């Protein structure tokens, strides 16, 4: 089946279109699902992606050449019909739907099924071959309700008015989602952000994602940040930058916070299980929903999801893709 699409360690090659999906090495023609560094990079000859993803790539990697593809818009390339549909992962993220020789292949990139105020929701597309991530492809990963995690964050803030809450969140997608989820819970106080967040938050605002009042945390007296939330990259939680903050309650927003050992290793006082990836139930429910003849599994814990497919009479294979990391470790 689908001999015209070839998985390689460095990406998925669409032979009739002479194009690569999310290649990890520079290619002349690249179809990119979203802006995270394990899927997007600079150096390609030409990129096809959503307008938002092209803007993110321009900001992060200096990518200059690209064709914007709107959600639902069709592009023809070497006899292959290519369509981008929302993946629900981060701003501009897309699944790439390929149709050729009477077959349909859906390459999801990264995706989630939970509501997210910063991006369009995932759209299931029935297909013959479904290429799915498996970042949280183990039954232990069942993410709690996002609102309840935000309530825990706000409760910690209100219970400690002389301290601040420092939230580690990946600079693309997670940080903006945390901020918007807080606004949705009625928290309209200024939120302080690490300097590494400023340009990406501004880009989100340019695309219509309102985040309320954000203030740079650099150069602010510690006393002025008491009773406030500060958002930084995970790498800044325990470095010299954070030592000037007013007795911070250290939090981290990640699906990996389900694993207590990870929280302890990172000295996280308030683990928040908030992920931009599908959990185990969402992965398996999505496979059932799109009803593929065959499932290709990549980007994570392939073995458990491969076994689940086999026990449900779904043909499946694991792809050995290089350079695929998760949302907070990349």
In short:
With 330 residues, the protein is of the alpha/beta class.
Oligomer: single chain
CATH architectural grouping of the largest domain: 4-Layer Sandwich
The N- and C-terminal alpha carbons lie at a distance of: 33 Å
Q: Which geometry do the CA atoms define? A: globular
Strand content: 25-35%
The helix fraction, in percent, is 10-25%
In the residues, how many domains can be counted? 2
Describe the fold and architecture.
The longest helix has 14 residues, at 146-159. It is globular, with a radius of gyration of 20 Å. It contains seven helices and 19 strands. α5 links the parallel β16 and β17. The protein has two domains: 5-140 and 277-318, Ribonuclease Z/Hydroxyacylglutathione hydrolase-like (Metallo-beta-lactamase, Chain A, 4-Layer Sandwich), CATH 3.60.15; 146-272, 3-Layer(aba) Sandwich (Rossmann fold). Strands 7-8-9-10-11-18-19 form a seven-stranded mixed sheet, with helices on one face. The protein has a six-stranded mixed sheet with strand order 1-2-3-4-5-6. It has a six-stranded parallel sheet with strand order 14-13-15-12-16-17, with helices on one face. It is an alpha/beta fold and 330 residues long. It has helices at 51-61, 146-159, 174-184, 198-206, 260-265, 280-290, 302-311, and strands at 5-8, 11-14, 19-21, 29-31, 46-49, 66-68, 74-77, 80-86, 94-100, 103-107, 129-134, 165-168, 191-193, 214-216, 229-232, 249-253, 270-272, 294-300, 315-318. GO terms for molecular function: exonuclease activity; ligase activity; RNA endonuclease activity. It is an enzyme of class 3 (hydrolase). Keywords: Exonuclease, Hydrolase, Ligase, Nuclease.
